[in-house]
Input
Amino acid sequence: MRVVKQLGFVVVVALLGSLVVRAAQWDAPSTLLLGLAAAAATVLAYRWVVGRTERRVPTELLFRGAGRALGRGALTGFALFGGAVALMAVFGDYRIAGWGSASGAVALLGFSAAAAVTEEVIFRGVLFRVLEGRLGSWLALVLTAALFGASHLLNPHASLWGAVAITVEAGAMLAAAYVATRTLWLPIGLHFAWNFAEGGIFGMSVSGTDQPQGLLHSVLSGPAWITGGDFGPEAGVFSVLVCSTVTAGFLVLAHRRGNLRPRGAGRAGGIAAPHREPRPVR
Output
């Protein structure tokens, strides 16, 4: 029942936030402010419902140390997407054709913030923790990654390969980032930076989303298996390659820190609670 309450409450708040952000119709100041407000509302909703249903302080989403974890996640996300773009450029499949839209980049800043927070809170904050408590870290990672990828089949220009790519490069990597650090802030920062770099800076489609032009006008000219086609570079092989490498690194770090949990390690009801104080992000 606690799981249903948590998921239901957070999803309702997130959906309402999404509707409000979309109602701004990409007006730059409105989308920025409403996106940040939706992100904040989702964080507060999660903290409140976890505190009420589990009778604990949600250590995975503490405000103390949030800035540092967000910053490290963001740096990782920007570096990862920059690496994927650099690989496409080396193979002649990407070039910058000029400037795009500064106002579009501002709007995408708010949109990316809202999307990153709501998706991480739902998929890693609620679903992953629940499954990890019952099934252990490894199986929870596989299942939530697959669910995250499948959820993108609803996006425009979606394909089975695109869903598989997101399962591997995003679903697995973001769950691994949470396991390694035991904070949601780092995967939130990583998720935000990847999406904003993709759409807000390089002006590419983010998972097939209909969006304004970003800061740069980019041209992709290679085959779809490299560029991702209309779905965006997330469905490209280089994105899968660079993110899979980082996923492996997070999992090694999680193992060294003793953060990988066996089956049934959570509390009754399937909520995975820390069996010890989580190690800080370093």
In short: Strands lie at 94-99, 216-220.
